[in-house]
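Job type: complex structure
Entries:
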Amino acid sequence: MSLVVVDSHTAGEPTRIIVSGGPSLNSGSLAERRDRFRHDFDHLRSAVVHEPRGSDVLVGGMLCKPTDSQCVAGVFFFNNVGYLGMCGHGTIGVAVTLAHLGRIAPGEHCLETPVGLVPFTLHDENRVTLENVPSYRLQKDVAIDVSGIGRFVGDVAWGGNWFYLVHQNNERLEFSRVDDLTSVGWKIRHELQRRQITGADGAEIDHIDLFGPPMSSDNHSRNFVLCPGGAYDRSPCGTGTSAKLACLAADGKLQPGEVWRQESILGTVFEATYRWDDDQHQSIVSRITGSAFVTGEATLHLDPHDPFRYGICTDVTSR
Ligand code: PYC
């Protein structure tokens, strides 16, 4: 079996999209087809994102035929431990991949995802603005004490994934500290689990987002994001930036239309704005702008004699 993929990175964070050779998932909504893939073809997720072909940092996606004729394509995203509700950097990667394949030209387009339609603008072959699914803050100023490290205060918010957005912490957000920050992020995540602090309906908070002052005075904030499978996000994280804007909006610290420049741990930037999604000002719709670059095209061969044709799986969540 062979899978054709296009690789890209968005602000440093890699995306690998299966563009052909994937299984037929028949008809149905993107959520139904994602669930069918999860049930019957999860070994292909593993083959694409795990070593020896991939790595823990890779976010994969499966390009599908959309059911909605106004959409240029459908997509669902996955990583080293499972499936993502939505992925901001991945959406920018898909847009640039579609342009690279000659399937779209600069202009307005729409993607179908398991969590809804995601309109986007392709400005040129690299720069993209996406409109994320509605985002909101669930809990403000949740304080936790992490043994051996100290106290953290943050908000719980949804931006297409669940985040604990830590605005009070004593961590220096420097690239040289990514190993320490990763360890801090895991400890925070385990403490949230231990205290049963969750997203809506008991959903696990699987993204930990630490905020601090930016290195560049052009930007408003710097972050370090620990992703569900233990890798840190090289980009400022699209869904995390949406969740951050939901918190800023709820606190009246950022006005609709005002630009927020979120700097990643690498120093790369997403620019974001929002509008209210409802008259009660409970949720927002954010627009995230960033750039992606295609880094490769490949045919992945799954040789039936290869013991690692479906990747090397390790339980990273027990770290
Ligand atoms: O950009 O939304 C994002 C994202 C989620 C996980 C990694 N990147």
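Summary: The chain has five helices and 16 strands. The CA atoms of residues 258 and 273 lie 6 Å apart.
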